[in-house]
Amino acid sequence: MKKLVHVLFVISISVLTVGCDNSKNSLVTPTVLGLSASATTVILLTNDSTEIVVSSGIEPYTITEQADGAIVAVTLSGRVLAINSNTIGTTAVKIKDSSIPAKTITITINVVAAYTTSTSGSLSFNSDRGNFSSNGIGMQTNTLPISGAGVIALSEFDGTLIYAYKVNSVTSIDIVTMFFQSKTNLATGTYEYPSSDKSVEITYSPNVNPADTLTLDRGYILAASANANIETLSSTVIKGVFSGNGYYADNGNYVQSQTIAISNGTFNVPILKIGKRQESVIEQLVLKMIKR
Questions:
Q1: 146 and 174 share one domain
Q2: Assigned domain for 75 exists
Q3: Is residue 28 domain-shared with residue 120, that is, in the same domain?
Q4: pTM value?
Q5: Cis omega (within 30 of 0) for bond into 30
Q6: Domain span holding position 233
Q7: Looking at the predicted structure, is the pLDDT value of residue 92 above 70?
Q8: Is residue 1 part of a domain?
């Protein structure tokens, strides 16, 4: 799984103009842009962490209004704002630069018990390793689900993770993930694996036992080929079809003799925007579900 590192930089341009009198050069003071950040609003689970990158303005940056320490612990080192969540709640941190007057930016932080939406989602496919179908309101927490079925899409910057699950019993959970990423903004169209531009990574982990950590290291990944077409994409929903072929993965090692072929895949999933963050929480979630 590639690590998502997204840093937003805004460049100020200094303009040097020459007056009519060639003996005098007039230096125009560059415009100081307002502060920017790789997120102005983020959502974290409890006992989670992330980093936000501040840019533009004039360094050094300082925290002018600290966040509620009971909810999060926040530190600023250079351009990087590190956030560690503690308890559920909403707070904010305000940062200023060194310009006169100072430019500021406020980062709002929401700490929640679970990533969830109020809308039901669906994901299904056929395969030679068993069919999968999940319908319901999805929920992502720090632990695996214990009952029901659901689908949710978590969106940040140019990456979106679809997370679908179906609890068969307390010792058997089927989990599917689809991770879309683009070099530009995510949009409708075809996503493939392998791809250097618009990529999709699809995994299927049947019969995961929450009490057996080894099952978290095992599952199928469509590493031979994967194709997904996003037919509808908005701020609230992602919808499309997919198919592909792959192998079984055991503790990060492909077992190419154990193949899988997926067809007739469909997804219609509500989106929860969790923030544009410098270090992706999506990668952390994927690694928690299936270690690669």
A1: yes
A2: yes
A3: no
A4: 0.76
A5: no
A6: 115-289
A7: yes
A8: no
Phi/psi of residue 282, each to 5°?
Answer: -60, -45
- Tens digit of pLDDT for each residue in 181-192? 988 888 999 999
Strand order in the sheet with 80-85: 36-37, 49-55, 80-85, 72-77
Each as own residue / partner, the long-range contacts of residues 224-227 (CB below 8 Å, 24 or more positions apart, any chain) are 224/259, 225/192, 225/193, 226/192, 226/193, 226/200, 226/201, 226/202, 227/190, 227/191, 227/192, 227/200
- b/e sequence 227-243, b meaning 16+ C-beta within 10 Å: bbebeebeeeebbbebb
Label residues 133-160 b or e (16+ Cβ within 10 Å = b).
Answer: ebbbbbbbeeebbeeebbbbbbbbbbbb
pLDDT per position as a tens digit, 199-246: 999 999 999 988 877 666 789 999 999 999 999 999 899 999 999 999
The reply to whether 88 and 167 lie within a common domain is no
> Which range among 38-47, 72-81, 122-131, 133-142 shows the weakest confidence by mean pLDDT?
38-47
Letter string b/e over residues 43-80, b meaning 16 or more CB atoms within 10 A of that residue's CB:
bbbbebebbbbbbbbeeebeeeeebbeebbebebeebb
